[in-house]
Amino acid sequence: NAGVTQTPKFQVLKTGQSMTLQCAQDMNHNSMYWYRQDPGMGLRLIYYSASEGTTDKGEVPNGYNVSRLNKREFSLRLESAAPSQTSVYFCASLPTAGVATEAFFGQGTRLTVV
Amino acid sequence: EDQVTQSPEALRLQEGESSSLNCSYTVSGLRGLFWYRQDPGKGPEFLFTLYSAGEEKEKERLKATLTKKESFLHITAPKPEDSATYLCAVQVIRAAGNKLTFGGGTRVLVKP
């Protein structure tokens, strides 16, 4: 029972490089989310997706793009990484679009931009 | 704009010293309020979901309550293993779907 799987777990990028963080869930959930967490802070929403083919901005979308490839997968892309994007990134999913229940989280991706 | 504010930012307790954490929110279209626990270097671990004002839920030494504007997480007779960051989040209805917004968290340290 994998739940929410994020890859990679760790990544070091040079300023200006691009990369894609992958997230996949095997629970047939409709809603998926990308967050970033800086040291000593809560989770800030980057983008979210209510269903395949739909996405919307959260609190801190600048510098990021997302793709909801299918119901299972939601990827986060950094086109030109900056040191300010050094953070821990979490992907989450919710069982259905219309009911508030437990959100399930991946184990996180620790990204360092030098 | 949806706002979720947690207080205090940090809390130091002696073992056995009960206390409460606050999560206040300003949102429209609330679907539910979540409480999570997070240990260093790990992802959030689910504790509770509250759906309507007046609702209460308990788990071991933790009790969560909800009003129309805020939620409290009460820690009764805490133990050192209760040391963690506690996060609250609100799920709200938006045209693009259900949005899940977190507060800044409360770091709790329980000393033996």
Low-confidence stretches of chain A: none
- Would you tell me the overall average pLDDT of chain B? 94
Question: How would you state the average pLDDT of chain A, rounded?
Answer: 92
Shape of chain B: globular
* Most residues in contact, chain pair and counts: A-B, 34 and 25 residues
Spatial shape of chain A: globular
Please, how many helices of chain B?
0
Query: How big is the Rg of chain B?
Result: 14 Å
Helical segment tally of chain A? 0
Structural class of chain B: mainly beta
- SSE class of chain A: mainly beta
Largest sheet of chain A: 7 strands, mixed
* Number of beta strands of chain B: 11
Q: What is the helix content of chain A?
A: under 10%
Strand content of chain B: over 45%
What percent of residues of chain A are in strands? over 45%
H/E series of chain A: EEEEEEEEEEE
For the terminal residues of chain A, how far apart are their CA atoms?
Answer: 36 Å
Helix content of chain B: under 10%
Describe the main β-sheet of chain B briefly: 6 strands, mixed
Catalogue the unreliable spans of chain B.
none
Walk me through what this model shows.
The complex is a heterodimer of chains A (about 110) and B (about 110). Chain A contains no helices and eleven strands. Chain A is mainly β. In chain A, strands 2, 4, 5, 6, 9, 10 and 11 form a seven-stranded mixed sheet that branches. Chain A has a four-stranded antiparallel sheet with strand order 1-3-8-7, with no helix packed on it. In chain A, β4 and β5 form a beta hairpin. Chain A is globular. Chain A starts with a strand and ends with a strand. The mean pLDDT of chain A is about 90. In chain B, a hairpin with a 3-residue loop joins β7 and β8. In chain B, about 0% of the residues lie in helices and about 65% in strands. The interface between A and B is medium-sized, with 34 and 25 residues.
